[in-house]
Write a structure and sequence with these properties.
alpha/beta; 9 strands; 14 helices; single chain; globular
Length: about 325
């Protein structure tokens, strides 16, 4: 990981990001509201979810250009209908490449765009159906994970998407940011933003960082526990890189250290204890092709630029 806080934006770049990300948030909430009105659950994840919870938007701002959502696989047809009603079209190759683990929608070219009425009449059909995308996805695209985040570890959200109105729960967001084997600097920035601005609690209240939830999830998965523990150490080491006032820096460190203490003290499952005996002699995290139906890394990255494929590169 790059030690310097390279994702921090300042000056004109910050002003431009604040305007652009405000527009992204408006569109994300429009989509989520449309889903809620039809009984379809969609929630923000990723950098925009951190921004949703942030109080200090200037500190939270960094470069991100798309909207990431999580929905329910059992509602996949309804999710498509919501997006089509808002003028989006599905890039079906994403669903194919990820064996229905992820969807992608985009604004079709031409005069008809999001907000201007229905897109293609049927899912994955019509004049805007795309060929395989080998580089960057279409502009204004939306990635939708289904049921779980499947990256280095799999975190299931099926029973937790309704806890908050617009974004996944802060504890779940905390875990998604810290579950990578190779943590990047933007994730460090996001974790610090989240911990700095979100109230910490030990009970599941909407909008709070429930550290008991963090400890409980990690107590059932030894590999996740190891990577979250190690990544918290990394974040703590780099808190000083972000120019926080002493009070905020101390609060971030205390919260992260408390999370580690609670993870250590939480009773571990039998599965966790058995896996701990094996340790790192056997790989404890998943690689991209294992998350997407046995396809090779080359197949996935050539077929579609998914989030997991992007992280792997």
């Amino acid at each position: 990981m790059t030690p310097a806080a390279t994702s921090r934006l300042r000056g004109a770049a910050l002003d431009a990001a604040l305007r652009f990300h405000s527009d992204l948030m408006v569109e994300a909430r429009r989509i989520i509201d449309a889903g809620n009105a039809q009984g379809v659950v969609l929630r923000l994840t990723g950098g925009l979810a951190v921004r949703h919870y942030a109080i200090d938007l200037e500190f939270a701002e960094r470069e991100y250009s798309d909207i990431d959502l999580i929905g329910l696989k059992r509602q996949v047809a309804d999710i498509g209908a919501v997006f089509r009603s808002l003028g989006y079209v599905e890039n079906c190759h994403v669903a194919m490449a990820t064996t229905n683990g992820q969807l992608q929608f985009f604004v079709p070219p031409g005069p008809q765009g999001a907000g201007d009425g229905p897109g293609a009449d049927a899912a994955c059909a019509g004049p805007y159906d795309l060929p395989v995308i080998t580089e960057t996805p279409p502009s204004d695209h939306i990635d939708v994970f289904l049921d779980a985040m499947r990256m280095d570890h799999q975190i299931d959200f099926r029973d937790r998407l309704s806890l908050n109105t617009y974004a996944i729960d802060p504890a779940d967001l905390f875990l998604t940011k810290l579950q990578m084997v190779n943590l990047n600097e933007k994730d460090v920035h996001d974790v610090i933003s989240l911990v700095k601005d979100v109230y910490v609690d030990f009970q599941p209240h909407p909008g709070v960082l429930d550290l008991h939830r963090v400890a409980e999830v990690c107590a059932g998965n030894w590999g996740l526990y190891i990577d979250v523990m190690n990544n918290i150490d990394t974040v703590v080491e780099h808190v000083a890189d972000y120019g926080l006032v002493p009070r905020d820096a101390a609060r971030v460190r205390r919260t992260l250290e408390l999370a580690q203490d609670m993870m250590t003290e939480q009773a571990k499952t039998l599965r966790w204890r058995l896996r701990a005996r094996i340790g790192k002699r056997v790989r404890w995290y998943s690689e991209v092709e294992e998350q997407f139906g046995g396809r090779t890394h080359e197949d996935i990255t050539q077929a579609v630029r998914t989030k997991a494929g992007r992280a792997a590169r």
